[in-house]
Structure formats: structure tokens, C-alpha cells
Amino acid sequence: MLFRDRRDAGRRLAARLREYAGRPDVLILALPRGGVPVGYEVARALGAPLDIFVVRKLGVPGHEELAMGALASGGTRVLNRETLELFRIPREEVERVAAMERRELERRERSYRGDRPPQPVEGKTVILVDDGLATGASMEAAVRALRQRNPARIVVAVPTAPAETCEALRASADEVVCVSTPEPFYAVGRWYEDFTQTGDEEVRRLLDEAASGVRIPAGGVEVAGDLIVPPGAHGIVVFAHGSGSSRHSPRNRYVAEVLRAAGMGTLLMDLLTLEEEREDQWTGRFRFDVELLGSRLIAATDWLAGRSDTRELRVGYFGASTGAAAALIAAAERPEAVAAIVSRGGRPDLAGPALGRVRAPTLLIVGSLDHPVIELNRRALAQITAPAELMIVPGASHLFEEPGTLEEVGRLAAEWFTRHLTAAPAHP
Fold first, then answer.
1. What's the pLDDT tens digit per position in 280-302?
2. What are the two backbone dihedrals, phi and then psi, of residue 338, each rounded to the nearest 5 degrees?
3. Neighbours of 262 (CB within 10 A)
4. What's the DSSP call for residue 426?
5. Superfamily of domain 213-423
6. 87-109 pLDDT, tens digit each
7. Which of 128, 172, 275, 277, by CA, is between 20 and 30 Å from 225?
């Protein structure tokens, strides 16, 4: 197998598209449904907006497997003149089939996108993403339809496809990026360990998450975040990632999904700007500057208090690695706003004197195989004067990669935040 699942394929595809990261002119369009989980990961990695591009084949009456044309998002229609002439298909028959497919296309767009308007395409560098190609017919139709909406550049990007399909698409797309072109190819699903069908609900959820991006002012700079507040949320949890990580951390994103299922809002945020992250990759200058990281959390907490959709919600912090120290420092500075803290494999010892000033109930979660960090957490626990507990997850290492261990973290965190955020009164 080449890929574990579509999310893994998307992350590996994103690595081949690094040159498009951080560019304001880039737009990711995913072909639903299977292309959406792949496109979601690409959009996250590149810092680009994500939307869908629905394509419906216009089948030849009586030979529906053959395409006489296609409809696409935005009302664009392309016709295959050679097929129309070969089968002598009258115009009224083309219009009948097109009307039927248009209704289905519009239904799918409403179902997937809801009330959100489609992303503008004109003048953009558009990266068209799917989970893989066999013949490439749908992607070819998408490229032809998209070209009529005047993008500056069209890049076809897929995890896997036959080499001849990629070569054929280069005649219509400006660039084709494919992670792997195995031979013999057989079928797209052959190269995935998990190729479970993507459901409509997953498409809607991923598009909702992709539309959740915010910019948070933090001491003269802005940092990026993803804010999701479910209806009736009884608290909001801010995530502070560890050294060398970001808001795209798959472990934190998993825990965030668990917390939202439990009725909490989540804010996954970058603690560093893009420029700081690039410098930190080479120098390590920022990753242990827990005072700076803590100040960014404080700024996010104050920012949430100023928003109409979050000002009535009590705040929890979920910190990992050095992010746990930042969370404790920030909580010590905002005791009236922060109602609970959870640390996953954290370094609370780095919070220093702030430990004694924390007032929020604190849960420290460490893996049983993470022996040095267990001892550091025990020492920190002794200095925390607020209600605090240390939970050790059996069989877990520092990153909780072992089966079932991250699920246990999610369960413990959801119970802790539900207990303390629900019980806490709303801050003024």
C-alpha cells in the first residue's frame, strides 16, 4: 500500500506542493467526495482556502457510460462535439440530460457547502485535487470547465494515477503533480490501506473546518488559528502545541474533534508567525521561549473575550510538550478567564514560578513509557496549588502513537473539561 488513508495521502501530496505554501493567490478545489479529505490536508499544509468543484458527466442516452459532455460548479458546461456528431444526439436530448444533471449538481453543492458562497476563481492559481485518477475523464472535464472561469493557472494534484493519465492531462492543465504512478495500476483503491467511501457528512464537516480560519492579534503580530464553536457550546478549549508543531498537529486535531463532540468549542492556533516558524526550524530560538508562547495564549484569550460568539464561554487550555508550560503561564495571568487546563505529554516544569499561581484545575496526562517526563510532571504537580491530578496512560510513549492511547487522552480531556467548564460561571 502507498497510503494509509486519504488524509495521509493529502499530507504526502502537500509535501510535493510546498512551492505554493503561503501564497494569497492559491485556491484548493477538491472533487467530492473522495477528493475532499485529500484537499483538506493540502489546504491546511499550504495555508490556502478550500472549496469543492463538482463535476457531473452528461452520459449519452442509452450509453450512459460514455460522456457527451459535463457540467461543473458555477454552471459551466462543456460538450464533446465529436461524440454528439457520432451518435447524432439532438439538442433537445442534450438539454434534457443537462437539466437532470444540473439539478443533482445543485443539490450536492447545497448539501456540501450550505449557505457559503463559492470561492472566487478568476485570476487565481487553482490546485484541483482528487484522491486518485484512473482514466482521468472526470478531471479532464473539471479542467476544461474551470478554464472557462479564467483562473491564472490550473494545477492538477493527485496522490496516485497511471503515468499515461498524468501525461494526457498535461495537454489541458498547466501542471500535473502526482505522488506515485505505479505500474500496473489496476485501480485507485488498490494503493490505499483504508479506502472507505467518503460520506456526505464528512465532506460537510471538512469544508466547515476549512472555513474556520481566523487571524489573532498578538503583540504587534498576527497568528493563524482555526476556530469552531458548535451551537450551544458550554466552553471553549484553546490548544497550545508543542515545540516544532503547529495548529495542524494531527494529534491535537483528533482531540479537538473529541471535545467538539462533547459540546465544546475549539481554537487550534499557531503560537508563532510563519516567519518565526521558519527561523525556529533552523535555530530552535522560539520553541522553548515559553514566556513568548504564553503571551500569545493570553492574547488569544483576550481576543475570545471580545467576540460576540465566545465572550460568554469559559476558557480551557490544552497544552502539549512546551505548550503545556505556556498554558500554565497564561492561566496564571488570566485566572478569572481560564477554568481548566489539560496537559498531554507536557513540560509543566518549564512554567517555573507560575505553577504556584495557577488557579485553574489542572490535569497532567503522561504515557507510562515516557519515564523522564513522568518525573518532571510529578515535580510540577507538587508545586501546583490548584486542584490537580496526574494520570498515566498505560503503554503510551511521549507522542501517544500506540493503539488506543490517544483515544484515552481524548476521553480524559473531554471528561475534565466537561466537568470544569460546565460548572464554571461565565466570565464578565
1. 777 777 777 899 999 999 999 99
2. -95, 120
3. 21
4. P
5. Alpha/Beta hydrolase fold, catalytic domain (3.40.50.1820)
6. 999 999 999 999 998 898 888 88
7. 128
